[in-house]
Every structure is written in structure tokens, then in C-alpha cells.
Amino acid sequence: MKRFSNEKNPSTVTVFLRRHCYLALLSTLLIGCDDSGNAVKYVCTEPLNSYLDQARVNITNDYEVERSQQLLAVCPDQGYHRRYEFEFDASALLAKRQSDAEVDAKWCNETTSRKVTAELDASTSVLTFSFIYPWATSTGKYPKTKFRIERNSMRGGFFNDIDWQCELAGVNQE
Predict the structure, then answer these.
(1) What DSSP character marks residue 134?
(2) In sequence order, what E strands does 54-160 have?
(3) For a tag site, which of 11, 32, 74, 95 has the least CB within 10 Å?
(4) What domain of life does the native source organism fall in (predicted)?
(5) How far apart are CA 83 and CA 49, in angstroms?
(6) Consecutive sets of 10 residues in the chain, 174 residues long: mean pLDDT of each?
């Protein structure tokens, strides 16, 4: 009985098996070389000065005095009004679909942050995170919102108000 092949004249089955084995070996070697599993984190901070100015006005108008005093006492040391950290898998930057992300949100005058999940839509110029706002509004509701980061300018914000400063966390910017 003749074997499937000999080295001088390999059969189609042998060629197929060799190619299959080479591809399996190659894919096994490359598994650790993609971007999945590598977390990307953008940290965005909202400018503080306009809120400090408004807090001073609120105190003179006897409006939200306690909150305004706390804002003036604590927030200048923090250097921001609100701080959002957006973390997601690096493979989301290449995906042509929505990806999962996590939002860690903090006010300057609070000691704890709040985490919510988000959906990320990534393009070459803009990252858009859709999530439930982590604080209730004056009506007691937690509305769905969108935060955009312009990747070229590293500016971000809600809807069209792009005045937050963003940076990649843990990245050496030499």
C-alpha cells in the first residue's frame, strides 16, 4: 500500500496537512502579539476656574453656600472640577463595532469615585463613550450621556462642549 506521499511527489492530502500544521503553529506563535488584553486609559479633567468663580458668586447670592464653600476649600488642591478615567481594551481602537469600556468618575470635592460601564465607538479622530451618568440630576434621574475625546487635540467633553483636557495614562510622552 502506498503512503500518502513521499518527499519527491507529495500528495494533495500531505500538502494540505503541512500547510494546516504550519498555519496552526504560526497562529499559536502570534497569539501573544496582538493588542487584546492591553488596557488603554484616557484621563480627562474638567477645568476648575469657572466653577470657582461661580462658587464665589453663589456664596454672595446665598445659593448653595455649603457646596460652594466646600468647592472653594478642597478643589483648588485637586486642580480639576471633575475627573473621568476611560479604560478599554486596545483592540477596541481597531474594531469596526462598539466595544465595552469602563468609566471611573470623580468630583473634586468627593473622596470616592463612581464606576459605570460604557459603550465605546472609536474612529481615527474621535472616541465616543456612551454611558449612564453616574450622578442623579435634580429630577432624581440618571440620564444616558455621551463623552467625546478628540484624539488629535486631546480635548474632550460632553456633547459639543469640548473643553476638558485629556491625556493617555501611563504613556511616556518624550
Answers:
(1) S
(2) 82-89, 99-107, 114-122, 126-132, 144-150, 155-158
(3) 32
(4) Bacteria
(5) 14
(6) 51 44 33 59 96 95 92 94 96 88 95 96 95 85 93 94 92 49
Burial of 104 (0-12, 13-18, 19+ CB in 10 A): middle
Is residue 100 within 8 Å of 47, Cβ to Cβ? no
Assessment of whether the complete model's pTM goes beyond 0.70: yes
CA quadruple 12, 17, 18, 23: dihedral sign? positive
Q: How many Cα atoms within 13 Å fall on the side-chain side of residue 129?
A: 28
Give 99's strand partners: 120
Question: Other C-beta atoms within 10 Å of 101: how many?
Answer: 24
